[in-house]
Amino acid sequence: MIWKYRTEQDKEHVENYLTDKGLSFSFDERLPAFYIDDPDPNKHYIAYQYYYTTGRWGVMYNKRNKNRKHYMCRDVETLVNKYILKDQDEVSDMRKPFDKSVYDEADKAAKDAAFKFISTMNYTTVDTTERKDFDIVCKARTEIHHLYEVEVKYAWKGEWPESWTEIRIPHRKKRLLDKWKKEYPNALFTFMVFRNDCKKAWHIDANILLDCEVKEAYNRNIAKGEKFFHIPVKDAYIVDIE
After folding, report:
1. Which of 27, 30, 152, 165 is such that its CA lies 20 to 30 A from the CA of 104?
2. CATH 3.40.1350.10 domain residues, the chain
3. Cβ contacts of residue 174 below 8 Å, gap of 6+?
4. pTM here?
């Protein structure tokens, strides 16, 4: 039986791997150990405590190891793929079908919050009616001046976690970027990603998406193979919704 094991992985490697996998985490220098949040938003109370030098880990419920059990793994890759994301493929294939009532509720909340933010500007028309392209169209007199696309990130609660170094927007939104450049080249285009209570939002210039990295994201609620724009947080800013 192996009582002691060394992973031969350093802190930077683990941080980079968790970030690449789209997992949020914190680090306790005193132990030292990582606390990796469960990727399922409905299991926000679960975190995985991981001692990166030895591979020792445990499941925490509301920051407590109520079962008082620890396990061993060879490296962070094993922990993530075998345990934390073990149901990734099955869950991705069994995602709930599109629920229009849920979409409508989130869409209305985000549009209402965005309208509150935009109303401080001097646009003659702010159109939030349902369209097949942009969520909000703002006109200065008769010309379209500003386009908005909005969404709610329900996993974002409280302050934005420092370990979330990117904001992700589905790559399928590229059709909007293409339409913007083709039909409204003189207009501004902004993406707003709201916190779950719609009191804060990331404000992202659409030009950033034209040059940012596009790749898969890993999460229980994301279909395998689905791609996203990965926008570094340094290229956006947070606005408060009064």
Report:
1. 165
2. 100-240
3. 209
4. 0.64
Looking only at the bridges linking them, the beta strands covering 166-170 and 188-194 are unpaired
> How many angstroms separate the CA atoms of 123 and 107, rounded?
22
* Residues paired with 41 in a beta bridge: none
In the chain, CATH 3.30.457 covers 11-86
* CA gyration radius, the chain: 21
Give the CATH fold of the 100-240 domain. Answer: Trna Endonuclease; Chain: A, domain 1 (3.40.1350)
Of 44-58, 152-166, 197-211, minimum mean pLDDT range: 152-166
Q: How much is the pLDDT for 90?
A: 43
Its CATH architecture, for the domain 11-86, is: 2-Layer Sandwich (3.30)
pLDDT at 95: 44
- Residue 77: which of 218, 220, 238, 229 has the closest Cα? 218
Q: In degrees rounded to 5, what are phi and psi of residue 202?
A: -80, 135
